[in-house]
Specification:
The protein is an alpha/beta fold. It has twelve helices and eight strands.
Length: about 250
């Protein structure tokens, strides 16, 4: 089901993202709650596109989704290959402050699900310090060591969480959201990747100037080379090749 009013979609390698600005996105989120709808938000970056080639279930989830947001320099470059412009880079880490402000103003409750045991609890404390009065009504690790999956869903619903942030990494978080969305009463559920690690202080984020020039991936690679070298050193060129072939094929039609 497509959300009415989303201005345009950009297609990359058979997937899409909603090419909108931050202000438009926040208006859409407000609309979701005003109309008492239930929506999920996913993000699309170069690694997500690569994963979709080897994981049909994950790719299908993205294709069926109403709201997918473009994230990262790779998506920006791929969009320019089609002769278009990416309006805003909308990643979960940059979006969170706006969600928190929205939650404070509109009295929306947030639930944190994901990362290693203890990380979501640290993030909760940091958010409560940064945004006094924000309601973080519960949290659980992404391995369900603190609570069972059924207990988490029950807690989300019983505590009336309006926004659920799911940080399990791609594609696990998307599959978990898609598989459990019907049982979750919250208006908005987002798959946010490594966001909890940043906001808990577990992993430092790249300086703003590094993010501005689109090199946050390089900063991440320096932090965790053993874990991320395949994703970036091999994955980025592979993505660009796939995006180039897709753009050329589209132009020839």
């Amino acid at each position: 089901m497509e959300i009415t009013g989303i201005r345009s979609k950009e297609y990359i390698c058979g997937l899409f993202y909603n090419n909108i600005q931050l202000e438009e996105l926040m208006c859409k989120i407000n609309h979701i709650f005003h109309r008492k709808k239930k929506e999920s938000i996913y993000f699309l970056n170069a690694d997500c596109v690569n994963k979709s080639f080897n994981d049909e279930e994950y790719g299908s989830i993205l294709k069926r989704s109403s709201l997918v947001l473009g994230d990262g320099l790779g998506i920006k470059i791929a969009t320019s290959m089609r002769g278009n412009k990416m309006l805003d880079n909308l990643n979960g880490t940059d979006l969170l402050p706006h969600l928190c402000e929205f939650s404070l103003i509109n009295k929306k409750k947030i639930y944190l699900l994901g990362a290693r045991p203890g990380v979501a609890d640290k993030m909760k404390g940091n958010l409560e310090s940064t945004y006094p009065g924000i309601e973080i009504v519960g949290h659980c690790d992404g391995f369900f060591l603190e609570k069972s999956e059924s207990q988490v869903i029950e807690e989300i619903n019983e505590k009336g969480a309006d926004i659920v942030l799911v940080a399990m990494g791609v594609p696990l978080q998307e599959k978990w959201i898609a598989g459990n969305r019907a049982s979750i009463s919250s208006g908005l559920v987002l798959g946010v990747g490594g966001l909890f690690d940043f906001y808990s202080g577990s992993i430092p984020r790249a300086p703003r100037w590094v993010r501005t020039i689109g090199m946050e991936w390089g900063f991440r690679l320096l932090q965790e080379p053993d874990r991320l070298w395949r994703r970036y050193i091999l994955g980025n060129p592979l993505f660009l090749l796939r995006a180039m072939k897709w753009a050329m094929r589209r132009r020839s039609l």
